[in-house]
Design brief:
By secondary structure, the protein is an alpha+beta fold. It has two domains: 84 residues, no CATH class; 235 residues, Alpha-Beta Complex (Transposase Inhibitor Protein From Tn5, Chain A, domain 1), CATH 3.90.350.10. The protein is built from ten helices and eleven strands. Strands 1, 2, 3, 4, 5, 6, 7, 8, 9, 10 and 11 form an eleven-stranded mixed β-sheet that branches. Helix 2 packs across helix 9 and helix 6 packs parallel to helix 7. The longest helix is centred in the C-terminal third of the chain and has 28 residues. The two termini are 39 Å apart.
């Protein structure tokens, strides 16, 4: 066997250090897969095995079979000798190590994290339920469940299991925001997020009613905002059936068909509705994994469990790419980006009392109207951190430099910084 190239061995050292729960064969297989995925920008078996065959100077079929065995069930794997012990890779056991890997590269002085939960389909084959860390216009998978796209049954047990798996991955003194779109709102999920001592930040539909704290009247959600440019917030009891006590935030930006209605357990003076824009970064993740990057949409897999194991390699490759790309972006001259947006919450207009001071017999205070930032005025990235990380790694390999290993430099909490826009490169 030819000696392994130095850059590969450097990545093997990182993976084995960050994923110590894996057996040696599992860690090596994960390293091979994630290294090949990151360098080839493909998660296809033929592409990755072909690349590694050239890199390791081994027969292509040998590498192909080794990579396939990594994501198979133990009973389906090929062994050199009959009775050889083979293990099935349990993906859920890697969720906490993945999350802790990210936090180990997070700034020690910053104990805040934003998660996004969403579902995505792959044709009529798969539906993936995914929780991701969102960061600099990208998403990094940390927990997922893949089911058949036409499979019947509730997703509730899957979502609850995913969040429960992550519970021990984040220190209890961290501030964790969990964002979801309208399609995932449910009281049981809101309650489950709260039970972890994390903060739900969930968009809701405008059906139903709400009651402002201290008042007796209920008002329709649909009537909170009447025009683009308005924003509003109050402590409420939301919905008559299965009510939730929390804070309701509303905002209607130019270019959006509907206003944002966000339900959270944070006080109105602690929450900024613009944080909900971070949720869209999980959609950038799906783009990076599919047509805009690793081409998962071309997979021939039809077994959900094998697909879940492949996603572990995708997640590890994404950690590498996004951490390197994000660090490169953070080191760039700030003048390469346009000016940041202004703070999203202007001072409250004179003469309008906060909701808690309103007369209980009056309708809610009229929404604030302000010059909300349009999407076009936000800073844009010409290259995503995912793509920039790939280019940085590729350049280092060609130049013979040490393999880039990134760090995370969060940029979304500054009050005056807002949320950078995103454009694919």
């Amino acid at each position: 066997m030819s000696p392994r190239p130095q850059r590969y061995k450097e990545w093997l050292s990182v993976v084995t250090q960050k994923m110590p729960h894996l057996s040696k064969p599992q860690a090596i297989g994960l390293t091979m897969w994630s290294f090949g995925i990151a360098i080839t920008q493909s998660c296809g078996l033929s592409t990755v095995s072909g690349f590694l065959a050239e890199l390791f100077e081994q027969p292509r079929n040998t590498l192909r079979q080794r990579l396939r065995d990594w994501y198979k069930d133990a009973a389906d794997k090929q062994g050199k000798h009959p009775g050889t012990k083979r293990n099935t890779l349990e993906v859920s056991a890697s969720f906490v190590p993945l999350l802790q890997w990210i936090l180990s590269w997070w700034p020690a002085a910053d104990n805040r994290l934003v998660l996004a939960a969403d579902a995505s389909t792959l044709g009529q084959r798969f539906t993936i339920l995914l929780i991701a860390v969102v960061y600099r216009g990208c998403g990094i998978p940390v927990a997922w469940k893949i089911v058949g796209a036409t499979e019947k049954g509730s997703w509730q047990p899957h979502w609850l299991s995913l969040f429960e798996h992550l519970k021990s991955g984040i220190p209890p003194d961290w501030f964790v925001l969990v964002t979801t779109d309208r399609g995932l709102y449910a009281k049981w999920l809101y309650d489950a997020i709260q039970a972890l001592d994390w903060h739900p930040f969930m968009r809701i539909n405008d059906q139903g009613t709400y009651q402002i704290a201290g008042q007796t009247a209920f008002y329709p959600l649909k009537g909170i905002l009447s025009q683009v440019g308005e924003s509003w917030s109050a402590s409420v009891s939301c919905f008559k059936t299965n009510p939730i006590e929390g804070t309701l935030l509303a905002r209607w930006d130019e270019g959006y068909r509907d206003p944002w209605l966000i339900l959270t357990d944070l006080d109105a003076n602690e929450a900024d509705i613009i944080w909900y824009g971070l949720r869209s970064w999980i959609e950038c993740l799906f783009k990076d994994i599919k047509r805009g990057g690793l081409k998962w949409h071309l997979t021939r897999m039809d077994d959900p469990q094998r697909a879940e194991r492949l996603w572990l390699a995708i997640a590890v490759a994404t950690i590498w790419l996004v951490s390197v790309g994000g660090q490169m972006e953070a080191q760039q001259d700030a003048s390469s980006l346009n000016n940041r947006p202004q703070p999203s919450h202007p001072p409250e207009p004179d003469g309008i009392a906060p909701p808690s001071q309103q007369d209980s017999n009056r309708a809610p205070t009229a929404p604030q109207t302000d010059e909300l930032q349009s999407q076009s005025s936000r800073p844009s990235r010409h290259l995503s951190c995912f793509r920039q990380g790939f280019l940085g790694i590729l350049a280092a390999v060609f130049k013979g430099d040490a393999l880039p290993i990134g760090q995370f430099v969060p940029d979304f909490w500054g009050q005056s910084e807002g949320i950078p826009g995103f454009s694919s490169g």
